[in-house]
Amino acid sequence: MPAVNGPATDADLDTLLADIDAARSQGLAAIAAALSTDELAQVESGLFGRKSALGPIKQALGSLAPDQRAGVGRALNEAQQELRTAHAQASDELAAVARREQLQREWLDLTETPPGPERGHLHLVTQTTERLEDVFVGMGFTVSEGPQAETDWYNFEALNLPAAHPARSMWDTLYLDLGERTELGDGEGGEASNVLLRTHTSPVQIRVMEVQPPPIYTICPGRVFRRDTADASHMPVFHQLEGLVVDRGISFADLAGTLEEFTSAYFGRSISSRLRPSYFPFTEPSAEFDITCVICEGAGCQTCQRTGWIELGGCGMVHPNVLTNCGIDFEEWTGFAFGFGIDRLALMRHGIDDLRDMYSNDIRFLSQF
Ligand code: DAH
After folding, report:
1. Chain segment 295-340, per-residue pLDDT in tens
2. Who has the most CB within 10 Å: 164, 223, 263, 311?
3. Whose CA is nearest to atom 10 of ligand 1?
């Protein structure tokens, strides 16, 4: 670039014009060499603006004599115009190529079946609950539900567990502080402010008997809560299934027969049940029921501590006080009830040795069931 000062010589003008031409053809070559919009953006500052090859020529223009300026200016404008047009065209073309490539990359065949068993399924506890419901519905039972937040009345008092009853210590209870708010209603004798997370599904027995005159044949599955620390066989939140029958002439033999029938319907004929005397405030007499160990089928193993039996739940004849609390005449009607843990049942059925696995949300574990 000649430093032009004052009127330029013809040789200076020729050099300027040659520089313009060189910048033009270099620019066009750079545009043609850009293979992507990114590359084109990189060459852009070399084409236009002050730092471009034409920038200094544009500056030199100011120091030319007016008649000289017209010729060089025209050449400069033409070169710039040519570069702009070439740049815009290349930019359009490269954008179109980029778009085509993107479409190609993101192309989806909507008729394609995705590989692998990616679909989700119900949690093992839900599956177990549904299977249990099927078995009991097949035996003529209805399914009832109740709230998870309960009043002291339904969870304890109506079940023959008055305030100071020592058997309350059988349930480590989580109490709720709701202040003045409670929409649960308070049963006779209960305190409205005394709201807790139900420790068992037995309160649903009370709710059913309150509204439904006997005969009653119902099961109540649901979530229950205890102030327990999680370990291999305990969780602070778990699930139970309650059974309740109230009818004329119901005896302990009906209870034993129903549990036996259920056991073989759910586990198969090789598994049977037995009853052991026990104590629950809401039943008299009370029993605990065991089933043949599903792991060793009665032969004796580690799971059943070599007894051949595993404990499933509690049961008994509904206590006359409980019937009275629900306005049912115990001279006319008798009943039995039972309750067991759904999670434990699923655990045994599948030979799972840690209850916590069911709730750790590990898809590798859950997808097995
Ligand atoms: N509610 C008892 C518990 O959580 C289980 C139970 C025992 C339920 C005896 C019953 C029953 O209906 O009759 O430990």
Report:
1. 889 999 887 889 999 999 999 999 999 999 999 999 999 999 999 9
2. 263
3. 338
What is the spatial distance between Cα 367 and Cα 364, in angstroms, rounded to a whole number? 6
Ligand 1 pocket mutation, candidates 235, 259, 282, criterion most atoms within 8 A of CB:
282
Give residue for tokens 């000062």. 5
Residue 57 φ/ψ, nearest 5 degrees? -65, -40
Pocket of ligand 1 (CB under 6 A): 200, 202, 242, 280, 283, 313-316, 337-339
* Distance between CA atoms of residues 358 and 100, nearest Å: 48
User: Rounded to 5 degrees, what angle do the CA atoms 333, 247, 243 make?
Assistant: 115
Cα separation, 247 vs 80, whole angstroms: 101
Pocket test of ligand 1: the residue of 216, 338, 340, 343 to mutate, having most ligand atoms within 8 Å of its CB, is: 338
Phi first, then psi, for residue 55 (nearest 5°) are -55, -55
In contact, 340 and 226? CB cutoff 8 Å: no
Please tell me whether residue 274 adopts helix, strand or coil conformation: strand
**Cα 313 to ligand 1 centroid, rounded to whole Å:** 7
